[in-house]
Amino acid sequence: MKFWNKNLRNMAEYIPGEQPQNLDEYIKLNTNENPFPPSKAVIEAIKNACDDNLRRYPNPTAVAVGQCFAQMHSLTVDHVFVGNGSDEIFTLIFRGFIESKERAAFPYPSYSLYYTLAEANGIPYDKITLTKSLDVDFEKFLEKNYALIIVANPNNPTGKKINKKDARSFLEKFKGLLVIDEAYVDFYGETLIDFVKEFDNCIITRSLSKSYSLAGLRVGFAIAHPDIIRGFIKLKDSYNVSRLAQAGALAALQDVKGFRYSIQMVRNNKEYLEEMLENLGFETIPSHANFVFTKHPKVSSKELYEKLKERKILVRWFEGPIQSEYLRISVGTMMEIKALVKELRELVER
Ligand code: PMP
User: Fold this and answer.
1) Is pTM beyond 0.85 here?
2) Domains of the chain: which residue ranges?
């Protein structure tokens, strides 16, 4: 295509999990959405925001949302940037926090959007394979002078958390920018947000998509030194978070009780799913997120993925070394898990 630039011509596109039109026909355990609905207070706040004021632009920095988030984490608001999902924050990082001659690095396997964005922006990068135990290999990340590294805590698709001590000693030596993507951190609770008070080269990203059941609303956060936050504000679209998203996000953060209840339900269901998979002979990586990374010693994961899809159950299977051995299954409701286990039992016992 003659209008595409060199980066666009050479890049592989990001492939999201399937979002079928006829959602009701499927059990959807492929994109790590929360199986439980968002807080009623969120729906109410969005409905209330549907008024004549929609003709007005929203607050350009979603300041009330940022203030609320900052307060929850004992930070001042100048440490917080509110984004249109955490994906927007990664886009901005590639737009303004790295030069095209510098090099980036990301773990593999991990969230493939990092590789896509590096390619889209013409940033050379290395994929640093996880260790044998599927942990981030921080030693390897120190072998070259990387300008930008993004790691996920917990990682997607493995569900493994980052060891805090390892991350801290890495940051004590690392001179570039370290982004820690905590989209799933609420499901186990040990955030590394405090690092931003100590290190001015660390950005933490968070999301309302998973733990707050708001993937459709598109709200995420970057937490970092105020100089970095000022960079995000310079780079962003003028009104990057809509009026409705700001109203919903604020109500979500304020409903602490509803949030805790939902997290506990997901955790309980995850334990149940892990137990059921173990009974069927699956080998599952202990997960700190709202999904499990699992494989069966006798049946290939690709085959299970395809057969489940024929039976209207969507889970995720990724091509490529290490990850193609596994299935990634999002935690569903009890009914969804039971339906999944019933089909898996038939498939593995055949
Ligand atoms: N980080 C990771 C590791 C993810 O898996 C996802 C979801 N695909 C995201 C970020 C995106 O989050 P958001 O919906 O906030 O853009």
Assistant:
1) yes
2) 18-37+257-349, 40-254
